[in-house]
Input
Amino acid sequence: MQKTVLIFVSFLFGSIFMGFYQEPTVCNAKILKEKTKEFLDPFKYDSSELTRIMYKNKEVVKDVEIPLFIGEKYRIVFNTEALPKPIEINIYNKDKEAKKRTLLFSSKNQEKGLRQFFYECSKVRHVFIDYVVPKTDTAAMQGCVVCMIGYK
Output
């Protein structure tokens, strides 16, 4: 009888914790980077960054700065397939405190339903990426986006 109760309790706790378990492949950096690398061609891989996105009950903007070398042509690729809800990706020439900040790219202007975006640039020292995470009422929503850079 005690053994049966112990098995039942173990099963119960296991079931409860599995409800909170998020599948690890959702933000599997290796798999996401391999998929993203396909969009770099004919550019050569330079670097990549996986950014974790947490959805909250208010809009959040995550800023990322990417230094570049003048004289090189770059392709910046974003893979958002590991996000449960679309975000807006904006690329600027200067940081958010700069007076003459120019929007260079926005995923808002891309075809609806796309999960991969790319932007090509040259003659800039830095690009500043804003990930605009929309407000959500769903608790504990999270995902990740891969940003990969290639050069020619």
User: Anything to note?
Assistant: Residues 97 and 105 are 18 Å apart (CA to CA). The longest strand covers residues 44-54. The first helix runs from residue 2 to 20. Confidence is low (pLDDT under 50) at residues 4-9, 11-25.
